[in-house]
């Protein structure tokens, strides 16, 4: 599942509820009437006036010196929407957006009539409280949110500015295509760093925490309704860099202080597995690099490969739990991930086939993932019946076949490796496809 939403480094209103949970032990006084939102130009001036003071305190907390002043301002909802559209157009082609939509539908993660691009634009326009633009080296706050109590958001964006000054965030703008799991891990480092700094900024002063709690309860209420209406896979993937990223950065900070967090920008996390399990980052447990041959010529005339990427542990958790609806079971099945690659193919009449190859740390890990994916597949296609399920006692091979209205499904486990073909066309030579993939394995490409 492609997870990338390539945008500037943003603060989401929904994140307020995450931080509010961390400071909920602070006694809350009676709410006061919220002041009126200032005019846009007046708010830009007020944001600029607050920037220098917040920058110095944020730099002190984060232990990064200020190398140059940071420009700031406020933007309207229309201006922020234009930024979102501009960045989507610059960094994601229409073909890539469509391929992501096709993949989400094939996996059953969004409804059949779901329109990915307009939904993302609408969701983010509603959610953005502020963002930092590395190209302009400037941050902006949403001008429709009251400024009082917004200093924590300013601190979050100024953390991005300090990261940029010391670690050059623009080097992540053009991430190589085909490994969005590693890109998401780096995004989690960046946003987790800003989240932890923001939390420490809030907790420095009790009144600051009280102001933030009031803002969190008001400004985030309607935004939370919007994000809660999003398909779960999109909602949780959008929140992953902030929530799981903060937990990861807190582990780094607890182990080696801010110095270790800063070092992580050189020794980057390589997978969402390392974000979810910091011990694997500390142990430098790198993912297996997996390749898949392009099998589109073997699927028939008019078939083409439209997406080639890595799922990673986080996406496999979401793919499984969309249908298992048992987070503990899905987490256990996705843990032990060692590396993977998937490819999405589209036929001449809109048919879609998904090929996946994954490696697992141990055979037991592969067993658990195989069993969970078979269970997920049965839930995904409730009207279909497996046509074959075999287990070889001589070699550690398990296999499940199923015919569905969307094509055939084949799940095969061989030791620590699991291969999945989902949406096989009727005339496909399954044996030839498997041999093609297995030959790649023997040549060491997987």
Write a structural description.
By secondary structure, the protein is of the alpha+beta class. The protein folds into 2 domains: 9-282, no CATH class; 296-442, Protein Transport Mog1p, Chain A, CATH 3.40.1000. The protein is 52% helix and 17% strand. It contains 16 helices and 11 strands. The protein has helices at 15-22, 40-62, 77-91, 94-106, 116-127, 151-167, 180-203, 206-228, 232-263, 272-276, 278-282, 296-299, 312-324, 327-334, 363-380, 430-442, and strands spanning 9-12, 71-75, 128-133, 138-142, 304-309, 337-346, 352-360, 386-391, 397-404, 407-414, 417-424. The protein has a 7-stranded antiparallel beta sheet with strand order 5-6-7-11-10-9-8. The protein has a 4-stranded mixed beta sheet with strand order 1-3-4-2. A hairpin with a 4-residue loop joins β3 (128-133) and β4 (138-142). α6 packs across α7 (180-203), α13 packs antiparallel against α14 (327-334) and α14 packs across α15 (363-380). The radius of gyration is 23 Å and the shape is elongated. The two termini are 19 Å apart. Mean pLDDT is 88; it is low at 24-39.
């Amino acid at each position: 599942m492609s997870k990338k939403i390539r945008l500037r480094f943003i603060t989401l209103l929904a994140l307020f509820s995450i931080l509010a949970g961390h400071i909920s032990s602070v006694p809350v006084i009676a709410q006061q009437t919220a002041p009126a939102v200032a005019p846009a130009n007046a708010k830009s001036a007020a944001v600029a006036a607050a920037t220098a003071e917040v920058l110095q305190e944020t730099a002190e907390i984060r232990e990064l010196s200020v190398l140059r002043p940071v420009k700031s301002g406020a933007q309207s909802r229309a201006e922020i929407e234009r930024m979102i559209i501009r960045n989507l157009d610059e960094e994601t082609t229409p073909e890539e957006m469509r391929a992501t939509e096709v993949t989400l539908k094939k996996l059953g993660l969004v409804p059949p009539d779901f329109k990915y691009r307009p939904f993302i634009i609408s969701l983010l326009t509603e959610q953005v409280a502020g963002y930092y633009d590395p190209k302009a080296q400037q941050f902006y706050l949403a001008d429709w949110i009251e400024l009082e109590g917004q200093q924590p958001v300013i601190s979050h964006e100024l953390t991005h500015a300090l990261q940029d000054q010391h670690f050059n965030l623009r080097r992540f703008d053009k991430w190589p295509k085909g490994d969005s799991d590693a890109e998401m891990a780096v995004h989690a480092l960046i946003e987790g760093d800003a989240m932890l700094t923001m939390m420490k900024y809030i907790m420095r002063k009790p009144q600051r925490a009280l102001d933030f709690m009031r803002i969190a309860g008001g400004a985030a209420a309607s935004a939370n309704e919007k994000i809660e209406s999003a398909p779960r896979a999109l909602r949780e993937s959008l929140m992953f860099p902030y929530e799981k990223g903060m937990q990861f950065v807190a582990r780094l900070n607890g182990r080696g202080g801010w110095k270790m967090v800063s070092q992580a920008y050189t020794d980057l996390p390589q997978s969402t597995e390392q974000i979810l399990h910091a011990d694997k980052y500390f142990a430098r447990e790198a993912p297996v690099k997996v390749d898949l041959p392009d099998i589109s010529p073997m699927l028939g005339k008019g078939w083409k490969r439209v997406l080639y990427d890595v799922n990673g542990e986080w996406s496999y958790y979401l793919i499984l739990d969309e249908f298992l609806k048992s987070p503990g079971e899905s987490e256990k099945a996705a843990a032990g991930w060692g590396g993977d690659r998937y490819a999405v193919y589209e036929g001449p009449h809109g048919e879609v086939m998904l090929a996946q190859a994954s490696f697992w740390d141990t055979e037991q890990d592969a067993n658990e993932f195989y069993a969970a994916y078979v269970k997920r597949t049965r839930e995904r296609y409730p009207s279909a019946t497996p046509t074959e399920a075999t287990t070889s006692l001589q070699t550690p091979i398990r296999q499940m076949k199923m015919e569905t209205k969307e094509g055939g499904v084949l799940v095969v486990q061989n030791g620590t490796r699991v291969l999945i073909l989902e949406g096989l066309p009727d005339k496909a030579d399954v044996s030839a496809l498997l041999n093609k993939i297995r030959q790649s394995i023997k040549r060491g490409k997987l």
